[in-house]
Amino acid sequence: MKQISPAMVPALLAWYHEVARVLPWRSEPTPYRVWVSEIMLQQTRVETVIPYFERFMEAMPSLEALANASEEQLHKLWEGLGYYSRVRNMATCAKQCMEIHNGALPSKYEELLKLKGIGPYTAGAIASIAFNQPIAAIDGNVLRVFSRLGASEANIALPSTSKQFKTIIEPLIPKDNASAFNQALMELGATICIPNGAPRCNICPLQPYCNGEHAGIAGFLPVKTKAKPRKIEARTILVLTHDHHVFLQKRKASGLLAGLYEFVNLEGTLHNQELEQWLNAHGVHVRNIDVLPPAKHIFSHVEWHMMGYQITLVEKPTLIGVWADKKALASTYSIPTAFSAYRTLLEETL
Ligand code: SF4
User: Fold this and answer.
1) Is residue 223 helix, strand or coil?
2) Closest Cα to atom 5, ligand 1: which residue?
3) Relative to the CA of 219, which ligand 1 atom is closest?
């Protein structure tokens, strides 16, 4: 990494002061609001997060409310955001704060790191944005910006690179303005020094200090090893309906989409004969079967390639799960986005 001039700091702050987007968590950066926003923003775009954040704050205005919420309530508030373990970890973290930190998030980075679901990035973001401490909050945006600023060819997929960048970034953070500094870096990474395309160096406030741009290599940075290809899994989805109700089963308490509700979801692609065998084995008496269009859902490491059947039943079979009508589907049961193609089709007929 080439040396980065401290003169980049005032340039960055002046730019941020001019262009900072008005966001609900920025107008009132309490530790609780900063924490919730940072967890929601992981893997999710700002525009998507805003309505979720506002709804969440209304339903769970404090750590105490969150610590006392039921898993079902939290899943419903999170429905559609994905990576549901985030909200379950938040509930555990809220309970930890109630028990060991007098009902508040601690201000020390090391204490934050001990809490459930809070890693180095989130701890750095809370410590700096809510408590104004000069701690780096290093995410993909910051790694990209500093790789380019320092013309660094270190592999940003390695934890050792984050550690190295932390030692370079923290001395640059102004003691009295850590909050604005970290948010400015995030904003620059999101809007100017962007991923998946050429950085917008011609309008970048850091252009005079950018080693990568001066060397003509900014567009090739950062260096990141390619992720392993995703595993493809074939699934067959059975949407069982009876008298304006649909059958839902609860997923296991751990693993992918843990604790959420789903339609019957079977491994592999079931054609006529296998489907008939499954229906017979489960005592399902069929009135009508419609073949549904195929659908695909991409998780971080797995891709589901689904086919589906909507099956209208003569009577309710004895299956372990719940029967939900349209109202309960909307208000009570959280169904992951992975099934949204089938849910939309179902809602037209339920
Ligand atoms: Fe990124 Fe270009 Fe700005 Fe350098 S000059 S920080 S590469 S946008």
Assistant:
1) strand
2) 207
3) 7
Q: What is the pLDDT of residue 111?
A: 97
Position in ligand 1 atom list of the atom nearest CA 199: 8
Four-CA torsion 81, 59, 74, 114, nearest 10 degrees: 90
**Cis previous bond, 174, omega within 30:** no
Ligand 1 site residues (CB inside 6 A) read: 145, 148-149, 192-193, 199-201, 204, 206-207, 210, 212-213, 218
Instruction: Measure the CA–CA gap between 256 and 83, rounded to whole angstroms.
Output: 8
The mean predicted confidence, pLDDT, of the chain is 94
pTM of the full structure: 0.80
Give the distance (Å) from ligand 1 centre to CA of residue 183. 16
Q: Model confidence at 223, in pLDDT bands (50, 70, 90)? A: very high
CA–CA separation, 337 vs 334, rounded Å?
A: 9
- Which among 18, 38, 233, 262 is annotated as catalytic? 38
What stretches of the chain adopt beta strand conformation (E)? 231-242, 245-250, 261-262, 264-267, 286-298, 302-313, 322-324
**pLDDT beyond 80 at 186:** yes
Which has the closest alpha carbon to 40: 17, 24, 21, 28? 24
The C-alpha angle 304, 276, 240, rounded to 5 degrees, equals: 60
Predicted confidence band of residue 349 (pLDDT cuts 50, 70, 90):
confident
Q: Which amino acid is at 84?
A: Y
| Distance from residue 147's CA to the centre of ligand 1 (Å) | 10
Per-residue confidence band for 232, with pLDDT thresholds at 50, 70 and 90: very high
Q: How far is the CA of 149 from the centre of ligand 1 (A)?
A: 7
User: What's the pLDDT tens digit per position in 41-79?
Assistant: 998 899 999 999 999 999 999 999 999 999 999 999 999
Query: Any catalytic annotation for residue 315?
Result: no
